[in-house]
Amino acid sequence: MLSLFESFPELQKNLPHIPLGDFPTPIQTMDSLAKTIGMDSLYIKYDSLSGTPYGGNKLRKLEFLIGDALHKRSQGIITFGCAGSNHALATAIYAKQNGLKCTSLLFPQPNALMVQKNLLASFHFGAELHYCISEKMMKNILERQIKKHESSFGCTPVIIPPGGSSPLGTVGYVNAGFELKQQVSAGLIPEPDFIYLASGTMGTSAGLQLGVMAAGLKTKVVPIRVTDVKYSSESGMSQLFNETCTLLREYDETFPSLHLPETETGLRHDFFGTEYARYTRESVEAVKLMKETEQIMLERTYTGKALAALIHDANLGLLKDKVVVFLNTYNSRGLDDVPAELDYHNLPGDFHRYFEEDVQELDREQ
Questions:
Q1: CATH number of 3-56+164-328
Q2: Is the pLDDT of residue 366 over 80?
Q3: Does pTM surpass 0.90?
Q4: Is 283:308 a contact under the CB 8 Å cutoff?
């Protein structure tokens, strides 16, 4: 049973949910990295191992979002992201696992090997992929896909926003806060002072902050912005936090009434770089250091930038004598089911450029 449901049984009765993941996710020390950057107490929480065949932070959200689609007896899901979206891939995998058709509307992004890998994997798991070069084009494709789905299946598809960061999806990370509280109570970790994590569409950071507050922890979430401010901002995070709390209280009025002002989101903007998915030198070096010290693989768009912020703060002495958790939101499963010989020419033609054009400069440093 989810930790959130143990504390609030009415939520289990009333919220749409399907168990997909392996929870609680493990937590352990990172002594080698801590010593290297001058810290006393550094932990990692492996949301990278949240599920099989694919982990990462999206699965917590999809337990509620796919649960909602099944509850509504929908036959399909439409979601959004950029070409290399981890969220779109996770949705494709777990939609197929539950008999749902997945359609992904994907925007351009700087090229990288990860983009190629995720596109091929999404196609392999049955996602219908559409390339959108503008918001107008996306809206037109979305309208056509909804009508096509209604004509084929006689019902409306469930629309999942980028990153799965609706109030319902965000509940998945409220649960993560209660899960952490149980791990603290079990003596697996002292109560953390800070949790560093990447902030893409804010569902992870807003939900986790709501969860730790509702669970009675004093832990401060430190979200590191890795997307455009359209998707990650103080006002947006405050709104998502408050809407998620309202949703939970609608299903169980005993859930605490909490509010997160814009001034208290803690959102950091200083490690974003020049554009979404454009690697930074700090991110590349952070990923390299994590591999050298802890043999843990991160990536350079999300987790690398979040770790770069943590290392920066540690080097300034800001984390001395603090208990710090790094939330690894990057899938660490191998996706062994995806054939190595899968031909990119099977993808819609608009995506071929990601296989025929060079990757960004910092991605050549393997």
A1: 3.40.50.1100
A2: no
A3: yes
A4: yes
